[in-house]
């Protein structure tokens, strides 16, 4: 029985997911320069011809992965700008999701390291993607700083420099992503309460 358009579309999406996961793993563990399209195809369990049907070059695939990661950062900005929840609730939910993602897979760790690699590779260039990452990172930092300040005003967060606290939060998450890849099975994700201990005000 011939497949429907919906079935073909699902197969296409499933193949792209396998390519993305394999490419991220290889770029992070082997490095971008040491990874070739044959490596990606082999790790994904597909033919190199099928990979080329989705991506003409390794560079195109890398750019799409970084774009995907940047879209995740944009969603975080939108999430932090919500007014229906308190800053404490928003930060707690954000850290809970980070904890869950780091506990149950490597995708978040790979994405965070991939963004870092892209920034380092793009430093000193005028590429649109590099500029976009810097812009989105700046927006996310601003939204987080404002959220922390609001939480401090409400008495839920500790006093201190909100910018320093925001930098510490993201540096901690980035460090955890790198530790997860380095330590492999020896890695344990700190609990959300430990990750946010510097920020959350203790109940009196």
From TrEMBL:
Residues in the DNA-binding region annotation: 36-55
InterPro entries: Homeodomain-like_sf, HTH-type_Tx_Regulator, HTH_TetR, Tet_transcr_reg_TetR-rel_C_sf
Source taxon at top rank: Bacteria
Keywords from the UniProt entry: DNA-binding
Domain HTH tetR-type: 13-73
Gene3D superfamilies (alphabetical): Tetracycline Repressor, domain 2
Classification via SUPFAM superfamilies: Homeodomain-like, Tetracyclin repressor-like, C-terminal domain
Full protein name: TetR/AcrR family transcriptional regulator
Organism: Paenibacillus illinoisensis
